[in-house]
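Input sequence (214 aa), recorded before submission:
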Amino acid sequence: MLTGAVTRRLALLAVPLTLFVAGCTGNPADDPAPKRTAVAERPSPFRDCAALSTAPTAGTPSPGAVSASPAAGGPELPALTLPCFTGGAPVALRDVAGPAVINVWASWCGPCRKELPAFQRLSERTAGRLQVVGVNTRDSRSGAQSIGEDFGVRFPVLVDQGDALQRELRRNAFPLTLFVDAAGRIRHVDATGALDDAQLSTLVREHLGVAVPA
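Predicted structure, token format:
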């Protein structure tokens, strides 16, 4: 038979054990939820794609420029539909109204980063006469977003993470640029490396008949 002193000691030792067991089996839902700070998604630096199906105003051909007639054109753009970086309705490539310059790029591609500012200047200098469109491929959304912000790229960008466009064209080079006439025909595909302002102006004049102001 236990003495009164021993009984009291056992009772005191049982209190911490009871608290320990209660703490292990407690429901986490009973604890107050930690405060969360909402992080707003950064707005896209690129323009939306809604206007890509609207043809640019006819520009004035430069001297010696090639006439953009369907008879002299090349193959059509592939029958692909790609999402727009900014969301909204996906865009069928064949609905992009030419003349247009379509640049395939990725944020991890050094030559792509080098030439993107020239494409942005091209879009500004030929506004209303030529469409400049980006196709971001094999890339992360955050990587593309950062490039747009850092390099001031504002023209519309489509997303092709499955390499569909390059596979259809049977091209694997980066960067890759398509020159598409008003009839939707590919006049020229350039994969020579980073293009600068002078090279772009020459290619646009020769293949699309659009003069690029200096």
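Checked by second reader. The longest helix spans residues 4-24.
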